[in-house]
Write a structure and sequence with these properties.
Blueprint: E1 3-8, E2 11-16, E3 19-20, H1 21-27, E4 36-41, E5 44-47, E6 51-52, E7 56-62, H2 66-88, E8 92-93, E9 98-99, E10 102-108, H3 118-131, E11 136-141, H4 142-148, H5 153-161, E12 166-172, E13 175-178, E14 192-202, E15 211-220, H6 223-238, H7 241-247, E16 251-252, E17 263-264, H8 266-285, E18 289-290, E19 296-298, H9 299-305, H10 307-310, E20 319-321, E21 324-328, H11 333-340, E22 352-361, E23 377-387, H12 392-409, E24 415-420, H13 430-446, E25 452-454, E26 464-470, E27 476-485, H14 487-491, E28 496-497, E29 503-504, E30 507-516, H15 517-528, E31 541-545, H16 551-563, E32 568-571, H17 577-586, E33 591-595, H18 597-602, E34 605-609, E35 614-618, H19 620-633
Parallel strand pairs: 1-7, 18-22, 24-25, 31-32, 31-33
Antiparallel strand pairs: 1-2, 3-6, 4-5, 4-7, 8-10, 9-10, 10-15, 11-12, 12-13, 14-15, 16-17, 19-21, 20-21, 22-23, 23-30, 24-26, 26-27, 27-30, 28-29, 33-34, 34-35
């Protein structure tokens, strides 16, 4: 049979070929051996059930390591599948991968699952974990696998697509599933899990395939870690912008109008107005010109830009207008390039900065629509900058600093930044790509920003910087992007007259600072949990009267605050004060001014902030000064 050379922790051993990895580990003196649940060979994780027949260097994978946790999560998915199969009989299995913080499994079963079924499935899983059943790996031929899973169309489809002649199955407690592994040694290694939700999922993500039922779960190696994660999930649920949007009366998405199309209610409309006004003022201050473009255009515009070729599936069907085909715009950039062609430009006029809050329309499948975060009609905070090649580094740095300034104004100062480089398929010359990439990199370094290289993930027309902001729960949101473009200037044949009197091709920078107003608004709602900083709050102050006797003075306060531009509401209803205060808190209004007999007699205010702290005998002019100062400074208090 022969031997093989095994290297582990810098020691070399001669081991008999075709030995199970678990047996190899047993033969070797290792620290904390009982916590080793798998090994890494190169970048691939192999569990202890795997048969080894060749020389290899083994890196132990411990239970409490990130790789070990992945193995635990994968095994938990299989335990869930076996529990569902035992409980519900005729079950056909899809796939059960790990995901961030957990796992899922897809099922084709007559029973319609709801979240009330999850405790029963969890209880059955706990039985299997308590039983500490061994995971047994078996290697079989493709023909044997097809025979074994003959009655399961999903496994059969997967098997037929696999290239290898030898496949593997795993068995525990009489349940067998097609799987390449890895798995923990036995079910008892699973210590902390929770089934979370049920959702529909098309087999392999295609609407042409059957709808399956997907059960999601979370798994950790420690119950405290699981509880921390579940609390985080609850906090995320409490911050869900769809729920808060309804509770605070900010926006609605109505099936009568159409999915993915947002209606902004007065309070949401006010926040949007404040964001857009600030955006416009800042752009004008930063030497941009504001432009506006139509919502539709002839189809030949999109043919020239290339969108009908590479973006067609996300565009709406053409509409006929006087025997010509028009399309709703999915992008603003072709309009800006067309506007550029209206005159002959000189090198002296560069850079040209055009900014637009342009509403675009993209066909998104109904299954991916998600509140404000994934919609069919949205407004991009778009800009296109036309530059000479020698201006590239300076202009990208300027754009990046402007981007960071804008994000910080809304309370975001933590990000993950990625520099995406040239993909395999690209337009333009490698030399131009290298220059643009260096310019992006130089700007990041000049701004002292930490970033990651994302190799080959640039768009086909140029490299880009992507900024993913971190919210209050440390979740990432893709918002800002800065992209160099060699494609559209070429496709639209745009030029300028250089200092040498000849024609030159400009470079175009695409950039979005907030991304889209809708998505950014969803992010803001969840980041602040609906409790917006004072400058963005749709209602900044609500004045309450305790009795009818104090209503007149309360109204004077209301009128004075209005004159200073403060967004204030009156509540003079004949209700208990506690009820009115509670209602203002639920609406997350930053300040409540309470006026009773004492305040009326002393001409002062009792001021209660959103956190519940109350200050008495406050002079009106002091209160106004405080409010106006906070708004001016745009203090992003959470």
């Amino acid at each position: 049979m022969g031997t093989m050379k095994i290297i582990i922790e810098n020691k070399t051993f001669e081991i008999e070929k075709n030995t199970i990895i678990g047996k190899i580990i047993e033969q070797i003196e290792l620290k904390d051996k009982k916590y080793i649940i798998a090994v890494k060979i190169g970048e691939e994780i192999k569990d202890l059930h795997t048969n080894l027949d060749h020389d290899a260097e083994l890196l132990p994978v411990y239970l409490n390591s990130p790789d070990g946790l992945e193995v635990v999560r994968h095994s938990t998915a299989h335990i869930m599948a076996s529990a569902v199969a035992e409980l519900y009989g005729d079950v056909k299995l899809g796939i059960g991968p790990t995901i961030e913080n957990g796992f899922y499994y897809d099922f084709d079963v007559k029973q319609t699952f709801s979240e009330t079924d999850l405790p029963k499935i969890e209880a059955k899983m706990q039985e299997m974990i308590k039983g500490n059943f061994k995971f047994e790996r078996e290697e079989i031929s493709k023909e044997e696998a097809l025979k074994k899973f003959e009655g399961d169309r999903y496994k059969k489809e997967l098997i037929e697509e696999l290239d290898g002649k030898i496949l593997s199955t795993y068995k525990h407690n009489g349940f067998t599933d097609l799987c390449r592994g890895p798995h923990v040694p036995s079910t008892g290694y699973v210590k902390a899990f929770k089934l979370l939700s049920v959702a529909g999922a098309y087999w392999r993500g295609s609407e042409k395939n059957p709808m399956m039922q997907r059960i999601y779960g979370a798994a950790f190696n420690d119950k405290n870690d699981l509880q921390t994660y579940l609390k985080l999930l609850q906090e995320a649920k409490d911050r869900d912008h769809r729920k808060l949007g309804k509770d605070l009366d900010l926006f609605s998405i109505n099936e009568t109008i159409g999915p993915g199309l947002v209606c902004w209610h007065p309070k949401g409309g006010m926040i949007r107005h404040l964001i857009e006004s600030f955006w416009k003022d800042e752009h004008i201050h930063n030497e941009y010109d504001i432009v506006y473009t139509p919502h539709i255009a002839k189809i030949n515009l999109w043919e020239t830009s290339g969108h009908t070729g590479f973006y067609r599936e996300n565009m709406y069907s053409p509409m006929d207008v006087e025997n010509q085909k028009y399309l709703a715009k999915p992008m603003n950039c072709p309009f800006h390039v067309t506007m550029y062609k209206n005159k002959l430009w000189s090198y002296r006029e560069f850079p040209i900065r055009w900014a637009e809050l342009g509403t675009v329309y993209r066909y998104e499948k109904s299954g991916v629509l998600h509140g404000l975060l994934r919609v069919r009609g949205f407004t991009q905070d778009d800009a296109h900058i036309f530059i000479r090649e020698d201006q590239m580094s300076e202009e990208i740095e300027r754009t990046l600093r402007f981007c960071i300034h804008m994000l910080s104004a809304f309370g975001f100062d933590r990000y993950d930044i990625y520099l995406s480089t040239r993909p395999e398929k690209f337009v333009g010359t490698p030399d131009n790509w290298d220059k643009a990439t260096r310019a992006l990199q130089h700007a990041l370094e000049k701004c002292n920003l930490t970033y990651h290289i994302d190799p080959g993930e640039g768009v086909f027309y140029g490299p880009k910087i992507d900024i993913k902001i971190k919210d209050a729960l440390n979740r990432s949101w893709q918002c800002s992007t800065i992209q160099a473009d060699f494609n559209l200037p070429e496709r639209f044949d745009i030029n300028y007259v250089g200092s040498d009197g000849s024609s030159h091709r400009p470079i175009m920078i695409h950039r979005a600072l907030l991304g889209s107003i809708e998505r950014f608004m969803g992010c803001l709602i969840e980041h602040y949990k609906g409790a917006f900083p004072l400058w963005l709050a749709p209602t900044q102050v609500r004045v309450l009267s305790i009795t009818d006797r104090s209503a007149e003075f309360a109204h004077e306060i209301f009128t004075t605050c209005k004159k200073f531009g403060i967004r204030i509401e009156e509540d003079f209803r004949n209700e208990k004060l506690g009820f009115k205060i509670r209602e203002a808190q639920l609406q997350k209004i930053p300040y409540v001014v309470i006026i009773g007999d004492n305040e009326t007699n002393t001409k002062t205010l009792s001021v209660r902030n959103r956190a519940g702290n109350e200050e008495r005998d406050v002079k009106l002019d002091i209160f106004l000064e405080k409010i106006l100062k906070e708004v001016k400074e745009k203090q992003s208090k959470q």
